[in-house]
Amino acid sequence: MAMKRLLLAAAVAAVCAAATGKLEAVRDGQADATEAIQQLIDSGAGEVALPPGRYRITKPLEVRLERVGPVAIRGQGGARLIMAGAGPAIRITGTHTEGTAAPRSFREDVWERERMPLLDGFEIVGAHEEAVGVQVEGTMQATLTRLLIRRARHGIRLTGRNRNIIISDCHIYENRGAGVLLEKLNLHQINITGSHISYNGGGGVVVRESEIRNIHIGTCDIESNMAADGPPAANVLLDTRAGTIREGAIVGCTLQHNHDAKDSANIRLLGHSAEDPMRVGYIAISSNALSDVAVNLHLRHARGVTVANNVFWKGYRHHVLVEGSSRIVMGPNLFDRSPAYGAPDSRDALEFIDSSDSSITGVHIEDPVGVEAALALRRCRRMNITGATVLRGATAGILLEDTEGVRVSDCILESLRPGPRVPPALRLTGGRGNMIVDNLYDGALEVAEGAAVVEGNRVR
Predict the structure, then answer these.
(1) Which residues contact 17 (CB under 8 A, 6 or more apart)?
(2) Alpha carbon of residue 380 to chain centroid
(3) pTM of the predicted model, to two decimals?
């Protein structure tokens, strides 16, 4: 048995030596390096080292984990793959098609031969209209680190079924489609951290037609992932009009640009319907900086989203637009208009439409422009607005339109432009069972008869 192992190791070493020799001759960016790199992958050595150079490939490098075993492809400084063919430059395929992420659900052969495929430390450049950076399917613990992927159709595409994915410390830049695309995917647990995902024309992190549990996006810079002449997109787009996404967080990121793109957004969650709102939810959005798009945060048919400790500015249509959603908890957030960021050319509205059973607490809203009210609730039910500071300019502070069971309490509603024609602090057009209590305001409270209990309020 020992002799057999020695002979096998010698055979693998011989194959690697031959393939490495071929690799030395094809790193000028002109010759076709596909065969030489594929031989190294297929050798079973477990590691493929790419010395500095430019490696032109013409078809996908196939990493079939069941066949080649655990593998790492590493760049040794300055290595670039130029994908001159259609499809992914690297396609990693495993066989973990059943079970969960729990240890007992893995087949032993999957654990022994397919664990943690690793890509690290090199660049991929698309040189074909249908080139993709990396595609991952059927894997367990795939780990993608320190990659630069640009000028491809999509940067990283996850599809099929995967478990426990890590994407970290990457630059995913200037791709025509999505930076990170989760499409037709069944996935438990993904961490996308510490990465720059910018200038991708079809969205930054995009999820479509998938079943996702536990998605975490943290400490990333996600910018301008919307082409001005392309279809609507978002820096983070979680689309569950088909599929579901539950359990996750978007934390500590900068998300901004491009307000010139059609219907642009920083974070957009799209559910299925008001009757079926649990397709997207149980997501925390915290400690992010969001700016310079049409809508900074857009929730449609979502249930169970917390939004706290974020800074918003330059929401050209809306800072926040919530439609047909429930169990939305909006804690302390700053919605600012700073002189340091130029002329007041954004509207900066906050609007809840046909939503219910939610709380807005401790928000600070500064000087929206050209909107009916700084904070508007239209046809909403059982909403609690407390401890808000609304510093308004030429607009009303809070608008309640045909609401039921809404309580506004302990808020400061003050105009930034005092004078003889101060806009109303609060306007309630109709509804029933509302309460307006213990607020400090200037201007006026305009409340439809019989629509609310109004008591304890004080004019400044």
Answers:
(1) none
(2) 27
(3) 0.94
